[in-house]
Design a protein that fits this description.
By secondary structure, the protein is mainly α. The chain has helices at residues 31-55, 61-82, 88-122, 135-165, 171-204, 209-241, 252-272, 287-295.
Length: 298
């Protein structure tokens, strides 16, 4: 691995119209990791689709879509591994799907917080925090920030591919990518602050002890999934801040342990402890009634 990119000594670039001179990944993607990703996300897709159809909470369809996007992303990484690791479209497409999928996971987690705040208000919880009084506004502000920053990241990744194809410096494109990741990380940390504040206040409310006991498994699952998504986002931020050819960017072991593994774990946590088991299907339903009944069947 040189300062200007990696070239497989056994597979030089075919120098086709869509090929870069170097492998932008910094390595040839592992076919084993790709196959594992496709298998695990396909199983998670089936689990999430079952949960959505069983509980009929359509607002969590994005979790299924996230699994589908991960599958597509790892299919294109497979094409890079098997067919042509220098192919820029393969790199950009896999990057698009693998980067956008966690945004849908985050969006579903944000929806959980919004629904929990509304439910808590319906059953008598009086939050002392003014910023928790308008959950819909909070939801859309954070989701909008996630969408905009994801678009910026995808544009940065595409520009890196173009720069490498034109033999130009990818520094500017990498800075665009870094800016998107920095804002996305800040937005997600803001959500975690809101979520922690809500859970802490709910747990301290003497009048909510029964309801809190029922909803606690969901709160823990959402918290664990959120921390895993944050771990992945911080890794992406550190990776990008080091530059296109940094150590973090060019070692697939780090990608596997800090991108792939956290997202697999997050989608499976949300499949096993699916929000539909606790969240009410209608405004008149209470998680205090939903949770125990569903837990008995899982």
């Amino acid at each position: 691995m040189s300062g200007r990119g990696y070239v497989d000594p056994n597979r030089p670039s075919p120098m086709g119209p869509n090929d870069a001179k170097i492998i932008i990944y910094g390595y040839v993607p592992s076919i084993a990791l790709c196959a594992l990703g496709i298998a695990l996300f396909a199983l998670a897709l089936g689990a999430h689709m079952y949960r959505v159809l069983h509980h009929r909470i359509w607002s969590f369809l994005p979790l299924s879509l996230a699994c589908l996007m991960e599958i597509v992303g790892y299919i294109f990484r497979t094409l890079s591994s098997v067919k042509d690791p220098y192919m820029i479209p393969y790199f950009v497409v896999q990057y698009f799907f693998i980067v956008v999928a966690p945004v849908l996971i985050s969006a579903s987690i944000y929806v959980c917080l919004s629904k929990l705040i509304r439910w808590a208000a319906d059953v008598g919880f009086k939050t002392p925090s003014r910023f928790l009084l308008r959950p819909r506004l909070l939801l859309w502000v954070i989701i909008t920030a996630d969408i905009v920053t994801s678009i910026v990241q995808i544009a940065g990744a595409a520009l890196i591919g173009v720069a490498e194809s034109n033999k130009d410096s990818p520094a500017t494109a990498n800075n665009i990518l870094l800016a998107g990741l920095a804002v996305q990380t800040a937005a997600f940390m803001l959500f975690l602050c809101l979520y922690t504040t809500f859970a802490f206040q709910l747990g301290r409310d003497a009048g909510m002890r029964t309801q809190f006991g029922v909803i606690r498994p969901l709160l823990l699952a959402i918290g664990a999934a959120s921390l895993l998504v944050l771990l992945r986002t911080v890794f992406r931020l550190a990776e990008t801040s080091g530059g296109v050819f940094s150590y973090a960017s060019t070692h697939e072991s780090l990608f596997g342990s800090l991108e792939f593994a956290p997202i697999v774990a997050a989608v499976w946590i949300l499949a096993i402890w699916h929000p539909g088991r606790w969240l009410p299907k209608t405004k008149s339903s209470s998680p205090a009634l939903v949770g125990p009944m569903e837990a008995a069947h899982v």
